[in-house]
Amino acid sequence: xxxxxxxxxxxxxxxxxxxxxxxxxxxxxxxxxxxxxxxxxxxxxxxxxxxxxxxxxxxxxxxxxxxxxxxxxxxxxxxxxxxxxxxxxxxxxxxxxxxxxxxxxxxxxxxxxxxxxxxxxxxxxxxxxxxxxxxxxxxxxxxxxxxxxxxxxxxxxxxxxxxxxxxxxxxxxxxxxxxxxxxxxxxxxxxxxxxxxxxxxxxxxxxxxxxxxxxxxxxxxxxxxxxxxxxxxxxxxxxxxxxxxxxxxxxxxxxxxxxxxxxxxxxxxxxxxxxxxxxxxxxxxxxxxxxxxxxxxxxxxxxxxxxxxx
Length: 310
Hints:
alpha+beta; 9-stranded mixed β-sheet; 4-stranded antiparallel β-sheet; 15 strands
């Protein structure tokens, strides 16, 4: 399960009223242990209506819970010699083409075998520490089953510069995807806030009242019988944003069992989504950097299975 980089805002439902906060959080985030959540509460990492949560606290319907994800310091980070597709590298940053199935950084349930473990082996001690104990160098993330381009910082100067661009949307990210159904328009903009699903807490959803602003620009590339291939450009970068947004307009990503069909289609388990292009201003030189990668084999194989364009 991928979380937002810092904190999660949760408005309690009637069903969650009266439930202990630690039990509620353990149910919402099954990859976090109950003891870790309790330590987070003790450290002041959970607030209810703006006030620090105390042990055994319970909430009521409509209360707003703010949960700051703990740094998983108990998990030792070890450099691992894993396959790493380096697209560009200099003394400040590295751009990699992440393979589908690789988790970006360690977390409970994924202690190793991650992109961070591979970067530590490749870069040594040069990675930035701003990203946190378990996220050295990490500026942005892509889901485990999403492939494609990602930039990581090698020092604090670079990390600060890239993070600022992520905040002001000058770090440009473009994805290719296959979606279910026939899109009526040639292009569109989805401007709908995204937040934690009010009932199924393992999912994100369009949440009009308390969600965070999320904007996705999409453009049709080609049509097939029952499917479309699209480009998605991120203006913001919420957890599962493209997956949630496309599902919200009735066109979930092919293979996305969380937001679309539960049964695998076209031999694909996991969403057909590839971060194909990335662009940013180099923090030190001020030069606009642009990178593009070819579609991976799994994606091109899916396109072949879709049949002829229509």
